[in-house]
Design brief:
Largest sheet: 5 strands, mixed
Order of helices and strands: HHHHHHHEHEEHEEHEE
Radius of gyration: 37 Å
Mean pLDDT: 82
Distance between the termini: 33 Å
Strand order of the largest sheet: 2-4-5-7-6
Strand content: 5-15%
Length: 334
C-alpha cells in the first residue's frame, strides 16, 4: 500500500518532474527535497501523531498539534529550499528574499495534504486491523464452540454402557470384552477424530456401527434395529454429525411400550449425504414431549449452521407412533 501511495504521488507529479529533470541541478535537487519533505510529513502523522494522540482518543491534543505543525511546516520546508539556493549561489545574504504570505500558502496545501493523507491511511489501517482481530476472535470463538459441541459425549450413554458391560462380565465375558473394545473405539474416535474438521465418511459409519452395537446391549430385541450404509464412503464429513440423532432415537424408542424399532439409513452420492432415522414414538408421551427440541437437536442445528451454512436440510417429523428425521448435507466445496 505504501509503495502504491508513493508511486501514485510520483505519477501525479510526473509532468512537473519531467520539466524538473530538464532544468538546472538546483531545481532538480529542490524538487527531490520537496518530495521527501512531504514524505517525512506523511510519516510524521502516520507513525507518531496518530498513534500517540488520535488512537488514544486525545482528540484535542491531536488537532492542536496538527494545526500548529501544518501552520509552520511550510516555513521550515521553504527554509530548507532556501539553504539549497544559498549553497548554489555561494552566499546566505538576503536569505529569505522572495518569501511572502502567498508563497507560504502555496506550500501550505501540499503540507496539509500530506498530513491529512498520513492520518487518514493510519486510521484506515487501524480500522482494518481491528476488523481482522475481531474476525479472528469470532473465528476462534466459533472453533471453540464447535469443539465443545462435537466433543460432547452423552454421559447417560457412557453410564448405561458401563452398567451393561458390568452385567455381561459374569454371564458372557466374551461379549463383555467385545463391548469394551467397541467402547474404547468410540472413546478414541471422540478424542482424536473429532479434533479434525472433516473425516472420511467410512470412519463416521464405523463409529455409528459401534454406537448401534452398544446401544443394542440394553434392548431385548436388537434384531429390530436395522442399519444400511450405501454409496461413496470416501466423502468427507464433519465428525460425529449424526450422533445426536442416533442417541435421540435410542433414548425415546427405548421408552415405548411396543418394540423399540429403529431404522437407520445413510447414503452418499456425488458429495451429497442423506441420513434417515426413524423410531417408535408416542406423540403424547410425557417422555417424548420435547424429543424434537432437546439440547442434542439444538446443538446439531448450531453446528450445521456453523459448518454447512445454507448447504443442509434437516426435517423432523414427529408422527403419532413413528418419529422420522431426515438430514441431507451437501459437502461439495468443503
Amino acid at each position: 500500500m505504501h509503495i502504491f501511495i508513493w508511486l501514485f504521488a510520483i505519477f501525479a507529479n510526473l509532468p512537473y518532474s519531467t520539466i524538473a529533470h530538464k532544468s538546472p541541478p538546483q531545481q532538480v535537487i529542490s524538487y527531490i527535497i520537496a518530495f521527501f519533505y512531504l514524505m517525512f510529513l506523511f510519516y510524521l502523522f502516520y507513525l507518531f501523531l496518530v498513534p500517540l494522540f488520535l488512537d488514544k482518543k486525545k482528540l484535542t491534543e491531536f488537532f492542536l498539534i496538527s494545526f500548529f505543525l501544518v501552520l509552520i511546516m511550510p516555513f521550515i520546508g521553504y527554509s530548507i529550499l532556501f539553504i539549497v539556493r544559498a549553497i548554489f549561489e555561494g552566499t546566505f545574504h538576503d536569505f529569505y528574499r522572495g518569501y511572502s504570505i502567498k508563497m507560504h500558502m502555496s506550500g501550505y496545501f501540499p503540507v496539509l495534504t500530506a498530513a491529512v493523507f498520513g492520518s487518514f491511511f493510519r486510521v484506515i489501517i487501524n480500522w482494518f486491523s481491528t476488523m481482522n482481530q475481531k474476525a479472528e476472535l469470532d473465528r476462534q470463538k466459533l472453533t471453540a464452540e464447535l469443539d465443545l459441541i462435537k466433543n460432547k459425549l452423552n454421559p447417560h450413554f457412557l453410564f448405561n454402557t458401563l452398567n451393561n458391560i458390568d452385567s455381561l462380565i459374569q454371564n458372557n465375558p466374551v461379549k463383555a470384552s467385545e463391548a469394551l473394545i467397541k467402547l474404547s473405539e468410540i472413546m478414541r474416535y471422540m478424542t482424536y477424530e473429532t479434533s479434525a474438521e472433516y473425516v472420511e465418511l467410512i470412519k463416521e459409519v464405523d463409529h455409528i456401527k459401534n454406537l448401534i452395537e452398544l446401544h443394542g446391549l440394553r434392548i431385548k430385541t436388537p434384531e429390530d434395529i436395522s442399519a444400511e450404509f450405501t454409496g461413496d464412503m470416501s466423502t468427507e464429513i464433519a465428525p460425529a454429525l449424526f450422533v445426536p440423532l442416533i442417541e435421540n432415537a435410542f433414548k425415546f424408542a427405548g421408552l415405548e411400550k411396543n418394540k423399540p424399532r429403529i431404522n437407520i439409513s445413510l447414503s452418499s452420492r456425488n458429495g451429497i449425504i442423506e441420513f434417515k432415522i426413524s423410531n417408535n414414538y408416542e406423540k403424547y408421551s410425557k417422555y417424548s414431549r420435547n424429543a424434537d427440541s432437546g439440547s442434542g437437536i439444538i446443538n446439531l442445528k448450531k453446528r450445521l449452521d456453523l459448518t454447512y451454512p445454507g448447504k443442509y436440510n434437516l426435517v423432523i417429523e414427529p408422527g403419532e407412533f413413528i418419529f422420522n428425521v431426515k438430514l441431507s448435507v451437501d459437502t461439495n466445496g468443503y
